[in-house]
Amino acid sequence: MSTEDEPPRPEPSSGPDFAPGRWVFLGMLLLGLAGFAAFNLLRTPPPLPPPEVAADPLLLEGRNVYVARCLTCHGPTGRGDGPIAGHLTGPPVGNLADGRWKHGDAPADVLKVITKGVPETRMAGWGSVLEPDQLRAVAGYVYFLAGLPIPSEIREEIPSLR
Ligand code: HEC
Q1: Separation in Å, CA 123 to CA 71, 72, 74, 93
Q2: Which residue has the least CA distance to atom 18 on ligand 1?
Q3: What distance in Å separates the CA atoms of residue 71 and residue 63, rounded to the nearest whole number?
Q4: What residue owns the CA closest to ligand 1's atom 40?
Q5: Angstrom distance (rounded) from CA 153 to CA 158
Q6: Under 8 Å between Cβ of 73 and 118
Q7: Which residue among 73, 105, 112, 120 is best mutated to probe the pocket of ligand 1, counting the most ligand atoms within 8 A of its Cβ?
Q8: pLDDT attached to residue 5
Q9: Domain spans of the chain?
Q10: Do residues 155 and 56 lie in contact, with contact meaning Cβ atoms separated by under 8 Å?
Q11: CB contact at 8 A, 47 and 115
Q12: For FRET with 56, which of 21, 36, 72, 142 sits at 20 to 30 Å CA-CA?
């Protein structure tokens, strides 16, 4: 028995009509794709690291952490002019780039501020968010922003980034 012998299937005449919903769905999908394309075409590419950073694994890692976690407050060059710095309650962000740090400039001081934060201020402790090597790397990057040499204590504790 061949398939031609089967009785024709009844046309689905009644029942809900899904066509309009499908067009709305397709329209939204296209809008989403267009938005995604526009976002990628129009966004400014992130600035490349300067050569002295690119050449130093510790600074490169520190910069990655800094750009992702610290820049919003401390600003691209550490001057305390990040996009949300002006909208914070409590003590101002301050300037990391002048190297005159309120909480001290010994490696242990800087690491402690970054790891534990400063109570009663918007400076949070990053010890539970970042890996120990990332904490050291970003501390090293803070010295770099201030134009200071990276303390050997910091560099020597990160064998993978030396
Ligand atoms: C939500 C905003 C915010 C973010 C994000 C932030 N900080 Fe801070 N940070 C502050 C503020 C505010 C202070 C000033 C605290 C004070 O007055 O004692 C500060 C202080 C500091 C200090 C001490 C400066 C000094 O003068 O002693 C260091 C170092 C520092 N931040 C590093 C970092 C690093 C590294 C990150 C990213 C891992 C980071 N901060 C992320 C707001 C922020």
Answers
A1: 12, 12, 10, 8
A2: 118
A3: 10
A4: 70
A5: 9
A6: no
A7: 73
A8: 73
A9: 15-44, 51-161
A10: no
A11: no
A12: 72
Residue 156 CA, ligand 1 centroid: distance in Å? 24
Distances in Å between the Cα of 70 and the Cα atoms of 25, 65, 81, 133 are: 40, 7, 11, 16
100 dihedral zone (left: phi>0; alpha: psi -120 to 50; beta): beta
Residue for token digits 């200071």? 148
Query: Tell me, what's the pLDDT at 10?
Result: 63
Question: What would the two tokens of residue 20 be?
Answer: 């309009």
CA of 74 to the centre of ligand 1 (A): 7
pLDDT at 13: 62
Give residues (CB < 6 A) around ligand 1.
69-70, 72-74, 91, 93-94, 96, 101-103, 110, 113-114, 118, 121-123, 126, 138, 142
Q: What is the mean pLDDT of each run of 10 residues along the chain (162 residues)?
A: 65 70 91 94 82 94 97 96 94 94 95 96 96 96 96 86 72
Instruction: Give the fold, CATH level 3, of 51-161.
Output: Cytochrome Bc1 Complex; Chain D, domain 2 (1.10.760)
